[in-house]
Amino acid sequence: MSDADQADQAGQIGQLQADNMRLRRLLNERGAPSTLRHQVRNALGLMRAIMRRSATGKTSVADFVAHLEGRFDALLRVQTGLLSSPDGQADLAMIVADEFLVQAIQEGERATVQGPAVRIEPKQAELLGLVLHELTTNAIKFGALTAPGGHIDVSWTLTTEPERSLTLVWAETGQQRAEPSQAFRGFGMEVIEGMLPYQLKAETALEFLTEGVRCTIAMPLPFPT
Amino acid sequence: MSNFVFRKFQSLGNFSADDEARLNASMQRVERIRPHTDLVQEGVHARYLNIVLEGWACRYKHLEDGRRQIIALFVPGDMCDPCVFTLDAMSHIIGTLTPVTLGRIAEKDMLEITRTSPSLSKAFWLEMLVSAEIQREWTVNLGRRTALERLAHLFCELLLRMRAVGLTKGCECDLPITQADLGDVLGLSPVHVNRTLQEIRAMGLVEVRGKRLVVHDEPALQALGLFNPNYLHLLPSPSQKG
User: Fold this and answer.
1) Residue A123 and residue A90: Cα distance in Å, rounded?
2) B204 Cβ under 8 Å from any chain A Cβ
3) How far is A173 from chain B (nearest CA, A)?
4) A85/B contact by beta carbon, under 8 A
5) How far is A38 from chain B (nearest CA, A)?
6) How many other β-carbons are positioned within 10 Å of the β-carbon of residue B157?
7) Fewest C-beta atoms under 10 Å: which of B156, B162, B185, B212?
8) In sequence order, which residues have a C-beta less than 8 Å from that of residue A165 and are 6 or more positions away?
9) Are residues B105 and B42 located together in one domain of the fold?
10) Taking a C-beta distance cutoff of 8 angstroms, is the pair A135, A215 a contact?
11) Is there a contact between B48 and B148 (Cβ–Cβ < 8 Å)?
């Protein structure tokens, strides 16, 4: 790695640390409502977990920083939305559509997003935002979007019996060969199979079908106030 | 009616009644052009400088498969390129979005004005520089802002531009374009525009009522859109009476 590359990475890491500090300042701001503090603390905890878990595997520092930036960006997008949200919750469709927007996936052409309007809690929004980022990144690098006719359908349904819950299905089609990437196997799978069940009481299923990845996430929702 | 152009100029700098008379004398009115009409075609040498006096127009480009990007919006008082004659041929299309009344200045008159009136020359320069500034801001919008931030930013900009020419009533102004047009401005799918509009309304910031834009909380909307009005280079404006 050249000196210039190292300096560049140091700059990027510095930038990430500065972002982290900005969140800390936000946390310490006098008069910040306790829900906000709670939320920021959660986000910092999550960032720490992302940072640690992204570091596993034998990738270069450049790769590590790139993955980390993508994940932090996804999380910060959700955070920014939550901060300006009057009810402190997030709209699920906006989270999905913004991830596609950032990754330059045209809705209607290569992806569809469908489901009833639903607002979700900060913790759910953060983790789902992260999962959607991992799934999208995987689809671009190794999944359905590598194939000319590849397509992603994201849809969800709400049920109220026996409890209020949300079931989201990520379905890729049009791929010839389904093979999970190393990156996905590492962090993405850990979020889906570890963090979601543990932190959101979600039931998740991740399948690698011949036509592409299929991921189902079912989780309880609180009753709307 | 041509005074929208002059108000636009005055929002950017100080100009005299003589300048206004001179501008009006050289301008030829073209009434009520129908919506969705192309004013200047791609590949053609422009013969006139077009100024929007009434209605909204836009600058756009098509990709081969029909996808469209609106590159700029023109509201009353806006000029479609003061230096357009310098180019051999246009690389994009200028078209109307609503019924439009234009003021046209012929190439020879325009050259005459720029040769003999330093103050009007300055006005044309300012107009061009500001439109380049807006273009830069739109690049950031399309490249980096989220859907909600894009929409918030555009609404903040439009409200200020309309206010500069005296076409606002408090925090309300006309928004005579469709959701499909908004999608082509913001690089969003129609369905994403729709849900973003719903979201921004649910936040209590903005409502689009019929063809009117109603802003409920301008400072919060500016914060949401990460909006800084400096790029519009507006003078502290007397026309802000609303």
Assistant:
1) 10
2) yes
3) 21
4) yes
5) 22
6) 21
7) B212
8) A158, A159, A218, A219, A220, A221
9) yes
10) yes
11) no
Interface residue A106 vs chain B (CB under 8 A): yes
| Span B25-34, average pLDDT | 89
Contact A81 B148 (CB under 8 A): yes
In-domain check, residue B195: yes
Q: Is residue B142 part of a domain?
A: no
User: Which ipTM value was assigned to this complex?
Assistant: 0.73
The pTM score is 0.82
pLDDT in tens, A125-180: 999 999 999 999 999 988 889 888 899 999 999 998 888 999 999 999 998 765 65
A10 Cβ contact list (under 8 Å, min separation 6)? none
Residues B67 and B130 in one domain: yes
Res. B241 pLDDT band, cuts 50 70 90: very low
Contact B195 A101 (CB under 8 A): no
The domain tally of chain B equals: 2
**Among B146, B191, B223, beta carbon nearest to A107:** B191
Are residues B154 and B121 part of one domain?
no
Say yes or no: B125 and B8 in one domain.
yes
pLDDT score of A41: 80
Question: A15-51, pLDDT tens digit by residue?
Answer: 676 566 556 556 655 555 677 777 778 888 888 888 8
Inter-chain contact A108–B191, Cβ cutoff 8 Å?
A: yes
Structural domain that includes position B177: 147-232
Report helix, strand or coil for B122: helix
